[in-house]
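Q: How do we represent a protein-ligand complex in a form that can be generated token by token?
A: Start from the inputs.
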Amino acid sequence: MAVIGIMSAMHEELAAVLAAMPDEQRVQVAGRDFWVGHWQGHSVVAVLSRIGKVAAATTATVLLERFGVNNLVFTGVAGGLGSGVRVGDVVVADGFVQHDLDVSPLFPRYEVPLYGLARFDAHPALLAQLRAASGQVLADAALHLGAGTLAEFQLSAPRVHQGLVISGDRFVSTSAESHALRQALPEALAVEMEGAAVAQVCHDYGVPFAAVRTISDRADDTAHTDFRRFIREVASRYSLAILSQWLSQRAPD
Ligand code: SAH
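Then emit the structure tokens for the protein with S-adenosyl-L-homocysteine bound:
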């Protein structure tokens, strides 16, 4: 039986997911609240990821070990790096790299020692499903956000991108830093703080993993001024709608 883990990076996103689950029960492990229940007939365990690679890896490990999660999806926000990746767009990751991992010269830059890998791929089927759901939601963004919110945040024709997402224990908020990341990893579309860690845990356990990130800022000096409002009024609504769309199209077990 499929047990779907949903890791939300933000409280507001998790609250929206919990509001959609009719029967969730709270189980506390490792200081975290895991919410076990159902959503659209699927067995779901929802949890706040916590911020940063180690915290997110711990949360993911508990989901897999203790709750038998065998499909894991992450939602959150990220800074846009790729040209054309704008605030209000959605990035569906097809692979993850830790941009702050450097064991050179012993291993190539970014490679995780003993894995022989720098990049951990998203699960192709899960990624395709989430990409389709994201496209359906963004095609009718006004329905999910309201025309007023679209106008207020100046979101015109938001797009879905698919590509590399990079993770590190740093909130990237200067142009110098985002420029350096673009130079070092030119194929990266977005930067965040958890995805590559969770992808590595899922790789270890052989569990399908995919992630969807709403772009909240451009990882530069002009980072979004009203981050919390953007999370509440844009990102958490996208996450809820994308997850709901995805689950509604997924065959029940
Ligand atoms: N100021 C926020 C803190 C956000 S921490 C608050 O008040 O809560 C950053 C979270 O957003 C992490 O989950 C990270 O994955 C993501 N994120 C968004 N933009 C980012 C950026 N530019 N660099 C790194 N992580 C980013």
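The pocket of S-adenosyl-L-homocysteine is lined by residues 9, 51, 76-79, 171-173, 191-194, 216-217, 219, 227 (CB under 6 Å). The mean pLDDT is 95.
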